[in-house]
Amino acid sequence: MAGLPQSITFPGRHQGFTLIEVLLVVLLMGIVSGIVLLAANPSDPSRVVAGEADRLEEAISLAQDSAINDNEQYGLLATEDGYQFLVYDDESRQWLPSGNPAFANYKLPEEVILEISAAETPAGNGKNDARPLQGKGGKEALKPQMLLLSSGESTATLLEVSAEGVLPEKLKMDDIGNLLRNPDAGAAP
Q: Does some domain include residue 2?
């Protein structure tokens, strides 16, 4: 076979990897991926609480925008297992569950607790401050614990999302509609 070049090898050089080099790389990749998986544990209670606080913060912000844009009065009510947004119906003069799918009843994970209280008083002990009102026909009427008005104003409210053994995430709403996350975080002890 004339005309084909022969392969040239250089003395002292080897081609490919040894078995030990390959095993070391696989071992290191396994250790690094294990660390990443442990660090990104989605069931970590502090991550769950932070995620639920993020979700609630976004929902409140969306409800504020909807109240202003749609000229409606919104309210937030903590339920036994989550929270729901209410809309004030001018015709019946009562609070009704919102028909908007974005504000449907939301069920919190089992270990997470939501407390809603007036901003001037500390959060309660996990109990709901809502007291049902008497509606038309003797039915129990819904009463929100926080108002989001079409004028952009709101009730001064402290919302606390917590779970056992985890620092709570706090959301503080002032009366002009400003929502602050963990307002005490920068305060000195």
A: no
Q: Confirm whether 13 is domain-assigned.
A: no
Range of the domain at 87: 45-181
Could you tell me how many helices (H) and strands (E) the chain has, helices first? 2, 11
- pTM attached to this predicted model: 0.68
Per the structure, the count of domains in the chain is: 1
Whether residue 128 is contained in a domain is answered as yes
Q: Please give the pLDDT value at position 99.
A: 87
- Burial level of 95, CB count in 10 A (0-12/13-18/19+)? buried
Q: Does residue 32 belong to any structural domain of this protein? A: no
Q: Specify the pLDDT at position 139.
A: 55
Transcribe 76-91 into DSSP letters: EEE-SSEEEEEEEETT
Tell me the CATH number at 84.
3.55.40.10
Per-residue pLDDT tens over the stretch 79-124: 999 999 999 999 999 999 998 888 889 999 989 999 999 876 444 4
Instruction: Report whether pLDDT(17) > 60.
Output: yes
In b/e form, how buried is each residue of 150-163, taking b as 16+ CB within 10 angstroms?
beeebbebbbbbbb
**Rounded Cα distance, 48 and 87, in Å:** 28
